[in-house]
Each structure stands twice: as C-alpha cells, then as structure tokens.
C-alpha cells in the first residue's frame, strides 16, 4: 500500500456521525473515505463494490446489524477489508461477538480523533487493535477465566477453526510443537500487544521478516488474526 491512501468505508445509520468521521479521517492525511453506508446490508454491498482497505462499522443499525455485516464482509472470498467496529455501547457481548465475527478492532465512539485515525491505520497494516482493558476482557472470556452464564456454553476461542484440533504444546514449556524458536519469540511479543515495528526493534530484525513470522504463526496455530494468537499465547502460558 506504499504511497496509496488507505481506502475507508464508513458505516453508521447517523449521517452526522459519518460526516464527523469523514472529516477526522481525511484531515489526518493518507486516508480517503471512498464510501458510506447507513445499514448493514448497504455495507456488505458497498464493501463488495468499493473494495475498501478498512470498514468502520457501527453495531446497531436497521435492516442488518453491524455484527452480521462484519461476518459477511470478512467471509467474502474476494474481500480483504479489515473491519473496525465503532460503537457507543461498551458491552461485552458486542465486543466478543464483533471479534468472533472477524473484526480487527473494537473502538468506542467516545474515543479521541487520534484514536480513530490510529485504529484505521493499524487495521490497514494488518494488525489488530484492542485497548489494554479490552484485551484483558477478551483474554478472560476466551481463556476460560470467566465462567459462562447459567444455561449457556462457553464460546469457542477467537478465530478457532472448529474442524481442526488445537495445536498441542510440549509438557515442559508449553511451546506449540509447530512453532520455531523465533516464531515463539514473536508470539510472546504479540501477546504484549507490540506492533510489527516494535517487534522488529526488539528482535533486531527487519519489519518484513516480522510480517513473515507473524503470518507463519497464525497459519500454524490455525488463528484467523493477531487477537486469536494473543488468546492462544495466554492460554498456553506464553505471555
């Protein structure tokens, strides 16, 4: 994407909110809003037509909510857009459902303008964006630290593939047998919420090399994204 602006699709049923987001993002430089949608169904159609790099997705909307729209956009075989859910409601069910649907980030609408811009840039770079307090809640939920409500079953791990077994871990150090020593180092640093650039600086390697290692880690763990890898690391005592 070097030299090209980040293409963003704004999805919110309030025109004033979309206008505010557009102004913030386009004023930041390097970001271009290529379209807007007021419903989930419009978002799915617009994502397929416009091929944005990032979709800023509201949750509560008429016709189809943002969670279902996220699920459909992420599942589309030819759609590579990253979805950042931006909502007014700080609710655990929205957070977990958004991540399970494939969202790359979760942001509250009361976040500052710089946080919105950063979320778009992080998602466009292929990273996942979660505030530290949100990360703790995700890990607690998906690592089984918080029991499910009565009458419900525990949700699957974020990004888990139900048809494949979870990678095994060695009994001595709980390092997944599929990962190399360097990949395990990268996984540990991912669990500290470090960016690719920060990991590269920590390990004295190039950022492109880090991207390769991250890709290999996700593939070997059967993890859809970095959030799933972080949950895995915490489950296996690697963080």
What share of residues are in beta strands? 5-15%
Overall geometry comes to: globular
Rg (C-alpha, Å) = 18 Å
**Runs with pLDDT <50, length 5+?**
146-173
Return the average pLDDT rounded to an integer: 80
Any idea of the CATH topology of the largest domain? Rossmann fold
CATH class of the largest domain: Alpha Beta
CATH superfamily of the largest domain: Response regulator
Number of helices: 10
Detail the topology: elements first, then pairings.
Layout: E1 6-11, H1 15-28, E2 31-37, H2 40-50, E3 54-57, H3 66-75, E4 82-87, H4 92-101, E5 105-108, H5 113-124, H6 132-142, H7 181-190, H8 196-203, H9 207-221, H10 226-235
Parallel strand pairs: 1-2, 1-3, 3-4, 4-5
Helix pairs in contact: 1-5, 2-3, 3-4, 6-10, 7-9, 8-9, 9-10
Structural description of this entry:
With 239 residues, the protein is α/β, with parallel strands linked by helices. The protein has two domains: 6-129, Response regulator (Rossmann fold, 3-Layer(aba) Sandwich); 159-235, Winged helix-like DNA-binding domain superfamily/Winged helix DNA-binding domain (Arc Repressor Mutant, subunit A). The protein contains ten helices and five strands; from the N terminus they run βαβαβαβαβαααααα. Strands 2-1-3-4-5 form a five-stranded parallel sheet, sandwiched between helices. β4, α4 (92-101) and β5 form a beta-alpha-beta unit. α1 packs across α5 and α2 packs parallel to α3. It is globular and about 50 Å long. Residues 146-173 have low confidence and may be disordered.
């Amino acid at each position: 994407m070097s030299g090209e602006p980040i293409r963003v699709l704004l999805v919110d049923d309030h025109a004033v909110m979309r206008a505010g987001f557009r102004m913030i993002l386009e004023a930041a430089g390097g970001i271009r809003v290529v379209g807007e949608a007021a419903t989930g169904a419009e978002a799915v159609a617009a994502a397929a037509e416009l091929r944005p790099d990032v979709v800023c997705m509201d949750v509560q909307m008429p016709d189809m909510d943002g969670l279902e729209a996220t699920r459909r956009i992420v599942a589309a075989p030819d759609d590579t857009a990253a979805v950042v859910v931006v909502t007014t409601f700080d609710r655990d069910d929205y957070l977990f459902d958004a991540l399970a649907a494939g969202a790359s980030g979760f942001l509250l609408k009361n976040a500052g303008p710089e946080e919105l811009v950063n979320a778009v840039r992080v998602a466009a770079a292929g990273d996942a964006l979660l505030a530290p307090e949100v990360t703790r809640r995700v890990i607690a939920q998906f690592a089984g630290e918080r029991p499910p409500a009565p009458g419900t079953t525990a949700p699957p791990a974020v990004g888990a593939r139900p048809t494949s077994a979870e990678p095994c871990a060695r009994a001595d150090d709980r390092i997944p047998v599929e990962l190399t020593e360097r990949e395990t180092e990268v996984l540990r640093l991912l669990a500290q919420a470090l960016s690719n650039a920060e990991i590269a600086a920590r390990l004295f390697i190039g950022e492109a090399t880090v991207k390769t290692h991250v890709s290999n880690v996700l593939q070997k763990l059967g993890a859809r994204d970095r959030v799933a890898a972080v949950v895995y690391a915490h489950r296996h005592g690697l963080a």
